[in-house]
Give the backbone structure.
Amino acid sequence: MHTLYFDLRDTKGQQKEIEDKIAAAAKILREGGLVAIPTETVYGLGANGLDGEAVQRIFEAKGRPNDNPLILHVTGQQWLPRYCRDVPPIAYVLARKFWPGPLTMILKRKPVVPDETTAGLDTVAMRCPNHPVTLAIIREAGVPIAAPSANTSGRPSCTSAQDVLEDMDGKIQGVVDGGPCTVGVESTILDLTCEPPRLLRPGGLPLEDLERLIGHIDVDKAVTGALKEGEKPKAPGMKYRHYAPKAPVTVITGAPEKSAREIQKRITATSGVICFDEFAHLFREQEVHTLGPSGDKLTQAQRVFDALRTFDNSAVTEIFAQCPDNRGLGLAVGNRLKKAAGFHVIEADSERVVLGLTGGTGAGKTSALRAIESLGGTVIDCDQVYHRMLTEDEDLRRDIHNAFPSAFTRDGVLGRQKLGQEVFSDKERLAQLNEIVYCHIIPELRRMLEEGTGDLFAIDAINLLEAGVDQLCDRTVAITAPAELRVRRIMARDGITEQYARLRISAQKPDEYYRGKCDLELNNAADSPETFESEAREFFQRLIETVKEEKQHGTV
């Protein structure tokens, strides 16, 4: 079979030529053929989702098990009633917010959708991809496109047309080249046929974004471990070993510095390594493919499949992979790596727990930190670290001097008051100073955590999120409190007027900011600091046990 190649990377070219290529690809699909299509997540192997025979050809081309359901790709929420029954209102809420985009919703299907597409389930997976070329092809074809990832089953997914040709040339009728995928991991799959909704596959839309819109979402056990023999998957990618290169993969979880060291202990001359950019220099004798910086989850998502695929052209006998934490896109990247490894996961620092605390003045952070200290934890105060570094860290002082020379005397002494006067009246200058400080303080915090003793740490920072310090934490906790209680506490603590206390609170970010961005919230409505400290102690005890249990099972 000859595979046609449609180059649509330049959609600003000759309009007639573009339209002809889209029409040709749509014609193949309408007539029962297979065409690989670009999306923002990965390339899909498409067929007419209403044609059971055409859909069966997808399974044959990929070597995909028939009990693995497919996703129907449509152009918008107006298609849902055509193929789904009893569509809940929440589906339209999600579609308005996240479509087109990397969200797939599991809904009850209508009989018009064949069993081949749904693997015999009474549900169907629906998605609207965020790629103009594929949306145009669907509109031209006039039918929903059933499309799993366009790779040979079990191999890493394809994020470019060349990847597709490597696996599918000669097996399918056409490949549409729409350029590299901008997200790099498949869509997030959310089951809306149960209450609460259930995450079946983490993907390009972070779980946190979904929960901010619709509240709590359960996470299916298939996200963190393999399904047992005989269990039927409800969505693509839940059951079988996926994304696997030829060489066996071992995933190392934990703090980036410790996971890098753990890999160092295990590698041989024939090992391959997938690691964050900062640690590539540690593996000079091995073949290395980098995921991107440890704090850049989007880059990691874009690179993870390419890193896994590239090793198939090498002679490595085993692969060790660093794994990001499970926040944001890290949950999806980690899931893909662990599936590639058949969930062979090693925890580099299973005992250590790092919590990040933030929140406005008067909320009760001091009492919460005392609770952590009573549990044997070490508190790292970022303000204290910053002021110490202003005195001791010559690199930080140099960068501040270059940007704010007037804040220093001729003898090189930093005048903190002069620096404050310069930045607090100018938001742009304050942002410039913060960027310098954030760049230096994160490596210092990493060093302190690495050299610290004990297995429990709390990082206290008002700018925990803005500075990127949350990347060092297993969980971030927002300490919040009712506004009137905060006012009274500040008045009593600092001996100030009510008016001044309210001004101080209004100058800070609202609780909604911290609540929306942190992993957890601890609200302080207690009558006394002692009562809240006791409540906080119980809260942190449960949280620490949860994090340690997750680490032991390789799910963090």
Observations:
- The first strand starts at residue 4 and ends at 7.
- The mean pLDDT is 91.
- The chain is about 40% helix and 15% strand.
- The two ends are 45 Å apart (CA to CA).
